[in-house]
Design brief:
globular; cell inner membrane; Transport permease protein
Length: 270
C-alpha cells in the first residue's frame, strides 16, 4: 500500500490536471461559475431553516445555539461538508468508467482516478469556506480552540470518502446496480446523520438499543466534529471519536483492498 501511495504522489501532476479539468468543465459556459458552489448549499440551508427554524420554532436547534451563532450557522456548518460527501459519492461509481480510455492507455496507478474525484470535491468544499466565515461573522459565532475539530473532521472525511470511492468505483465496473444504490444511500445517509438536527434530539427520541445502531453510522462522528468547530457542545465523546477514527481508517483499508483485488477484472471489463 505504501508503494502505491508513493506512486500516486509521484503522479500528483496527473491528479492536479484531472481536478483542474473537472473544475473547468463544471463551470464552463456558466454565467455564475464559482457562485454555484455556494448557491446550492445556501438554498438548502434556507429551506431547512424555514421548516425547522421557523415553522417548528427552532426545536431542531442544539442547546444554547443562540450563544454560538444560532440554528442558521448550525445548518451551514453541516450542509457544506455534506455537499462534499454527497457529490463525491455520486461521482464515485463512475470514477473508473469515465476515464476508461486513459486507464487502458496511460501507465499510471489507477488509484489516482478515485483520488482525483475526492480531491476535486474537497477543493469545491474549500471554495465554500468564505460563505461559512461570512455566516460566522454576521451571526456573531464564536471562534476558539474548538475550531481544531474542523481539520480533524476533514482528514477523517477524506480518508473515509477515498476508501468508499475506491470500493464503489471498482465494484460498479462489474455491477452497474451500484449507481442506483448510491442514489438511495445518499438520501438515507442524509437523514440518518446529524446534519440538520443535533445529536441530542436523536438521543431523546430513540431507546438505547436503537441509539447504538444509529451511532454505527460512521458519518455521525465526522459531522459531530464539523459542528463542534463552531458549537463546542457538539464535540464527540472519547468513544465516538475513537470509533470515527477507526471507521475512517478501516474504510480506507477495505476500499483499497477491494480495489486491488478487483483490478485485473476491472481492466478486462474496461
Amino acid at each position: 500500500m505504501a508503494s502505491r501511495a508513493l506512486a500516486v504522489w509521484q503522479n500528483r501532476q496527473v491528479v492536479n490536471l484531472l481536478v483542474r479539468r473537472d473544475l473547468k468543465v463544471k463551470y464552463q459556459q456558466s454565467v455564475l461559475g464559482y457562485a454555484w458552489s455556494m448557491l446550492e448549499p445556501l438554498a438548502m440551508a434556507g429551506i431547512y431553516y424555514f421548516v425547522f427554524g421557523v415553522l417548528f420554532s427552532g426545536r431542531a436547534a442544539p442547546e444554547n445555539a443562540d450563544q454560538y451563532g444560532g440554528y442558521a450557522l448550525f445548518l451551514i456548518s453541516g450542509l457544506l461538508p455534506w455537499m462534499w460527501f454527497s457529490t463525491a459519492m455520486s461521482e464515485a461509481s463512475r470514477a473508473l468508467i469515465t476515464h476508461s480510455k486513459l486507464i487502458t492507455t496511460m501507465k499510471v496507478p489507477r488509484e489516482i482516478f478515485p483520488f482525483a474525484v475526492v480531491s476535486g470535491k474537497f477543493v469545491d468544499y474549500l471554495f465554500t469556506w468564505p460563505v461559512l466565515i461570512a455566516f460566522v461573522v454576521l451571526l456573531q459565532g464564536k471562534v476558539g480552540l474548538n475550531l481544531l475539530w474542523a481539520p480533524l473532521a476533514m482528514v477523517c472525511q477524506f480518508a473515509f470518502l477515498l476508501g468508499l470511492t475506491m470500493l464503489l468505483a471498482s465494484v460498479n465496473v462489474l455491477l452497474r446496480d451500484v449507481e442506483r444504490m448510491i442514489r438511495i444511500l445518499n438520501r438515507v445517509l442524509f437523514y440518518a446523520t446529524p446534519i440538520i438536527y443535533p445529536l441530542i434530539r436523536v438521543q431523546e427520541a430513540l431507546p438505547a438499543w436503537a441509539m447504538t445502531i444509529y451511532e454505527l453510522n460512521p458519518l455521525v462522528g465526522i459531522f459531530q466534529m464539523h459542528h463542534a468547530a463552531w458549537f463546542p457542545g457538539e464535540a464527540p465523546d472519547t468513544v465516538m471519536l475513537c470509533s470515527t477514527l477507526g471507521w475512517s481508517a478501516a474504510m480506507l483499508v477495505i476500499g483499497y483492498w477491494v480495489f486491488r483485488r478487483l483490478e485485473t477484472a476491472v481492466l478486462k471489463e474496461l
